[in-house]
Design brief:
With about 450 residues, the chain is of the alpha/beta class. It has three domains: about 120 residues, Rossmann fold, CATH 3.40.50.12160; about 230 residues, tm_1862 like domain (pyruvate-formate lyase- activating enzyme); about 60 residues, Nucleic acid-binding proteins (OB fold (Dihydrolipoamide Acetyltransferase, E2P)). Helices cover about 35% and strands about 20% of the residues. It has a six-stranded parallel β-sheet with strand order 6-9-10-11-12-13. Helix 6 packs parallel to helix 7, helix 7 packs parallel to helix 8 and helix 11 runs parallel beside helix 12.
Amino acid sequence: MPRKTDSPIRVHTISLGCPKNRVDTERLLGALGRGMTPADGAADADLVLVNTCGFIRPAVEESVNTILEAINDAAETAETTGRKPLLAVAGCLVSRYGADLRAELPEVDLWLATDEIETWPGRAARALAGRALAIPAPGGDMPRRVSTAPAYAYLKISEGCSHNCRFCTIPSIRGPHLSWPVKFLAAEAGQLAAEVPEIVVVGQDATAYGSDLDNGDDLKKLLTHLASIPALRWLRLMYLYPAGLTEDLLAFLRDLGSPLLPYFDIPLQHAHPDVLASMGRPFARDPRRVVDRVRAFFPQAALRTTFIVGYPGETDAHFAELLRFVEETRFHHLGVFPYWPEEGTPAAEMDGQVPDEVKLARRDALMELQASISADILSNYVGETLPVLIEAPSDEWPGLYTGRAWFQAPEVDGITYVSAPPDTDLTPGAIVDVEIDRADTYDLSGLV
């Protein structure tokens, strides 16, 4: 049965991949106006939006499977209620394989590619209006509909990437680096800080922010604005390109102080100069230099990085050097990805492709090493009192909450479990002092 057009538009969103995708989804929902309300699934929705990832093969497979599930859910809803939700598919997978997807999946009503992101709200609004669903005109000053509240929100400061790493599909999917103006970002950050205590800055290369602008906007100017927001408690930077972490920038970050956290997410990708040079990384020398440089300015820094194992031509000796580097550097957090030969990238055509079983064995060996390092680092916090940002009550038992210490980024790092007395009600979004009494491989536990 058709719904009345004066009731709120119900939207079910599925945002896959990186936080930058999540921001795109939240900005779209905000731009659609105030006549929106979340739906738990297709059966309750007028609009089902799947925002896809198409970066590497596993992400492509996950995105395709999610679209197929959404198609089935929409069909079941139509069969049982007589009302089929509008099905929109957006994001990187559409930009990478749009023509093939449109031919293979006619059940999808609306395809939204990343190179036309500014048109998403208008196209979605028109499609909904075409179903006799009345929604406000898109645009205006409607803030993002934050889906990560009440603890944190992401601030995407740029689109695309202008580097030419030989393994990466991002430039072909998202285009060259494009910075959002400081004025826009400062306004959005002010809205976010009214809802959450932590803002996490993301971009494909955050250190390149402003390099494409000629109005004086740069990363220093942006961070100065963000750090001056009165309500903001924590400011975290992600995706800091190694070559962009100059002494000048590090000195600025050191002097900026609170609310900036001494947390550095630096995607190094490898440690051997031969592999780095083959990858086409701009910082193709010894990565120890950037690590030492960061620690010279921030001795207490928490470092996170990612590595690719099994890149074409990677030998046992190259991998052994990577293991030594990780053992010596002692990252707080580390992610490891087996190399995937992505269609359209130069690396996919290189000689010396590494067998999958070798890639997976190397990934497991590196993660085993990192597990021992992580457990050792976390053990040093036992007995300390740390500020912890409360995220949510835990389902395990009353009085238990999940949260994060300053060196734990949302979604990618470990968490801190917080036990509170029975008469204590911890509010999600609050930052409380926690006495750490236990450390596991990746997580901490403590008492209020």
